Amino acid sequence: MNRLLIITLFFITLLLASCAVLPPLQKSKLIAIFHLIEISNYPEAKRVAEEMIEDENANQWPRTWYARGLLCQTAYQEGMRRNNRRMFELYEDQLYVAYESYEKALELDTRNSIAKQLAPKYILLANDFKTMGTQHFNGRRYEEALRAFEKALTINESPVLIAYIDTNLVYNAAIAAIESKKKDKAIKHLKRLDGYNFSTNVTHLLSSTYLEKGDTLNAEKVLQEGVKKYEDNEGLVLLLADLQFNKGDTEQSLLTLTRAHSQDPDNYIFPYTKGLIYQKTEQYNLAIANYKDALKLAPDESKIYTNIAICYYNIGVEIEDNSRLLTSNRAVEEEREKSKAAYESASSWLRQASDKGGSNQASALQLQQRLNRLNITLDATSD
């Protein structure tokens, strides 16, 4: 007698012993399901299983539901291995039917005799749902991917298994939720990850998702906490400063950048970004001062030279515009000289940007065209 037959007979003996409350016909049907699964006769196993599910007595016994769950899971796994659609589509949403059947078995199992048997089944089932979720995601079926990933999470955190958190799986669920436009679910999963300090990217995604919902308050709070948690991470600082600036809190935005620069004084990006803010708010002298601070740390950054040139050009335009309101010819002439000096400084800084390889920037080309129209050459001395 071979080993497989011995194991099968032993299992059937145990099953008979635990089925004493069932009538003989129902016992034989239950045994038949397990045998049919063993020989891969899944359609017939399904027919018998569904007969027992419909029976008002048999459907109250946990092993009836366990058998159907095992059928669904086994047929699905073999079908996927063999690429046999008839096996893995024995039921609609077959893996979900397997899970629901196992859960029903647990619900009816007052003796707690099935939980241990289910533990290895649940581990495999969670892996199958992960694989399914990945396949759906790669196929851009994001709602189906989210559903599968969330079911894998539910199984992983079942009392049947030793509780553990698969943070990568939570992340997959979060991304699938974002792609399927399920913002509340995305926030749920991202908040969980952010609580585990998963990554700065998660903090960014969580803040962005809040913003998409129009929740600026929570978006800012998440970034503020992230800046503290990740020790003034450059990306999060810039996101926070940008959010504060866009909601009209320029002073707070500048303060955020100042604090970050005090913690990381060798990073040019913070004074540079302050320069951008001052430039956008037409405080050109303050912008130039911060750009020059940034240049001390990054003297080869051509974009800084270009922005200084733009600031000087705008100063020249402002002076020229204001001079039109003057009535004294002498005052007008003085202002024009100041304006010309600003344009010449712009030209000089633009030349330096060109020397650093920034002459092909769209902003640099546009500025050069404007200066050409003013007959300002690139030979002036920088301010």
Structural features:
single chain, mainly alpha, rod-shaped, disordered N terminus
Concise synopsis of the structure shown:
The protein has 383 residues and is mostly helical. 76% of the residues lie in helices and 0% in strands.
Outline the fold blueprint.
Elements: H1 3-18, H2 24-38, H3 42-54, H4 62-82, H5 85-88, H6 94-108, H7 115-138, H8 142-156, H9 167-179, H10 183-195, H11 200-212, H12 216-229, H13 234-246, H14 250-263, H15 269-280, H16 284-297, H17 302-323, H18 329-355, H19 362-373
What features would you describe in this structure?
Among the domains are: 21-113; 268-383, Serine Threonine Protein Phosphatase 5, Tetratricopeptide repeat. The protein is rod-shaped, with a radius of gyration of 35 Å. It is built from 19 helices and no strands. It has 383 residues and is mainly alpha-helical. 38% of the residues are buried.
